[in-house]
UniProtKB/TrEMBL annotation:
Domain NmrA-like residue range list: 6-261
Pfam family name, one: NmrA
Keywords: NADP
Family label: Belongs to the NmrA-type oxidoreductase family.
Protein name: NmrA/HSCARG family protein
Amino acid sequence: MTTSPNQFIVVTGATGLQGRAVTRQLLNSGWRVRALTRNGNSPGAQALAALGAEIVQGDMAQSNTLISVFDGAYGVFSVQNPYLSGLNGEIDQGKNVARVAKQVGVKHLIYSSAGPTVRDTGVPSWESKLVVEDYMKTLDLPLTILRPMAFMELLTEKKFFPAVSTWQVMPKLMGSSTPVYWVNTQDLAIIVAKAFADPHRFLGEVLPLASDIRSIAECRTIYQQVMGKSPARFPLPVWLFERMGLIGQDLTSMWRWLGRVPLETSTEALYTIHPDALPIRTWLEQHKSSHSTS
């Protein structure tokens, strides 16, 4: 489809990792973007405003604040963060977004879920998203569901504490040779833009997103080769990591499950849609280059 000057997309969680990437990509693709955030004065919100996004304040936990934001939107990109809101909060927010999107007649809702399609994994942040998905389906929404796997940003992003989590506790619980399915947020954002531009192809689809399959041991070798040094590791007992609250308990449940149950997916779905998606080596090379010049 061809975007018109009057069409806009609402991006929820616009200042988060996924939301930022999606907002930028949609702007680059010619869409108007209404970026939803709880703090319109934050540096992240102001950076998006400088790129041309319309910054609007609202709270996904309060559905009444969403009606005016969603009204008139062609589409909504929906993502919630359970590590900020808690699991019940994530479910409530996801349901609120879906309910209001249905109420105002949004033409296309793209929901960023996570994890495999199987149920009863015991992983809290996977199970919560299935609850949201099930609710969305009861509303008969024009819906596309994305299932991004592990984000490559987990290897480098400081807010994820990679020295403790990805490089230390994760391989200890999952096994350093267990295959992990990876994708980066920019490639996810490109898929989102393609889906909004071609609804007939994507409506009703559930898309697993992975562009590379690498164990932590393989990632460590690639990191050493690209960065010229080993990734930092900070020894931390598993029990202490789990005491860090929901984050620790959720992630350790996830990594234990991945160590027990082989995933059955591939990179085919993503590369069929986006042939230029990046494997880990190329992504790390670009990451290194962008940070050395910034």
